[in-house]
Amino acid sequence: MTTAAPRSILAVDAGQSSIKIRHSTGGDVTDWSTSGIRTDIPLMPQLGAVLADAGRRGLGAEAVGIGVSGLTAAATDAEELMSVAARSGARALSIAHDSITAFLGALGDNRGAVVAVGTGVVTLAVGRTEIARVDGWGYLLGDAGSGFWIGRAALDAVLRANDGRGPATALTDVVRAEFPVLEDAYIELQADQDRVRRVAAYARTVAEVAAAGDEVAAAISAAAADELAHSVASGLRRVGEIGPDGRDRAGAGASGESVHVRAVGGAWGSVVLADAFVDAVRRRLPGADVRVVRADPLDGAMLLPSVSHESPLRAQAVHVTA
């Protein structure tokens, strides 16, 4: 049973770098964005402010779909958000971790794995009856292969080279442009509340320098790709889509189907990272249908309210009505 699609919807993709919002009614679509979600302070007031702003813009909707980075069950008060959205005419609200909306945006209500990589990273695998979330544990404890992880590895490589503990790298010149005295970089970053974004911004530098042939940057990209592929394979095993040998348990050869893997997010502008990821996945999952795509998590947030009741994804969102 698939729930009926609402006539108008307000979709929110709340990430750490930015919050993106889309209002759609009929053929009219309005997109805008604001500063990113902060996961170190309560999430619901931040999301409530986004919904209230949409109301002030005159962009009320019948249904609201929200995907949020860092969302936990304990921090979710959908009723509080529903009360804000209802002031602008909303009758239903669905909220989920952004791994759910990233998956929906890339693969829809189907099976497979989606790895979403931006400042942070989260992988979601969906099987016939189960789902598995892998990583997404934030920059302090996880997010292996993320923009922050890559940026931190770049800074680590530069400081190692400065110490004589690592090889020379073209990354040093770029980092010195921001921190002429390298020894002061860690002091400045530790004191900056915007340090996560600043560190993650070096992922773009790694992409550029790796493409130009720098061996250190290429090694960082390959290591990130390997971490991301490992997360994909781990998730698919947990939901029973592949066996220990990396092959489809249902028999891809017999069914003509392959395990579907999609990579989405801002970090994939790096050709070096994308190519290394595809290779790393195929080493683990022979025959996988793996693609780096331009899927938009906002598309997933749009789909969230109408996910099939038979889908294991349905239970991963909180659905409330006015």
What's the SSE blueprint?
Elements: E1 8-14, E2 18-25, E3 28-35, H1 43-56, E4 63-68, H2 78-86, E5 92-97, H3 98-107, E6 112-117, E7 121-126, E8 131-134, H4 138-141, H5 147-163, H6 171-178, H7 185-191, H8 195-200, H9 202-211, H10 215-238, H11 252-255, E9 260-264, H12 271-284, E10 289-292, H13 297-303, E11 318-321
Parallel strand pairs: 1-4, 4-5, 6-9, 9-10
Antiparallel strand pairs: 1-2, 2-3, 5-11, 6-7, 7-8
Give me the side-by-side strand order of the main sheet. Answer: 3-2-1-4-5-11
Q: By helix and strand content, what is the structural category?
A: alpha/beta
Uncertain runs: 250-256
CATH C-level category of the domain at 8-104 and 297-321:
Alpha Beta
The 3D shape can be described as: globular
Biggest sheet record: 6 strands, mixed
The assembly state of the depicted protein chains is: single chain
Number of strands: 11
Radius of gyration: 21 Å
On the 0 to 100 scale, the average pLDDT is 90
Task: Output the CATH topology of the domain at 8-104 and 297-321.
Answer: Nucleotidyltransferase, domain 5
CATH superfamily of the domain at 8-104 and 297-321: ATPase, nucleotide binding domain
- What is the ordering of alpha helices and beta strands? EEEHEHEHEEEHHHHHHHHEHEHE
Instruction: Calculate the terminal CA-CA distance, rounded to whole Å.
Output: 22 Å
* Helix share, percent: 40-55%
- Secondary-structure arrangement, i.e. CATH architecture of the domain at 8-104 and 297-321: 2-Layer Sandwich
Fraction in beta strands: 15-25%
**DSSP summary: helix tally:** 13
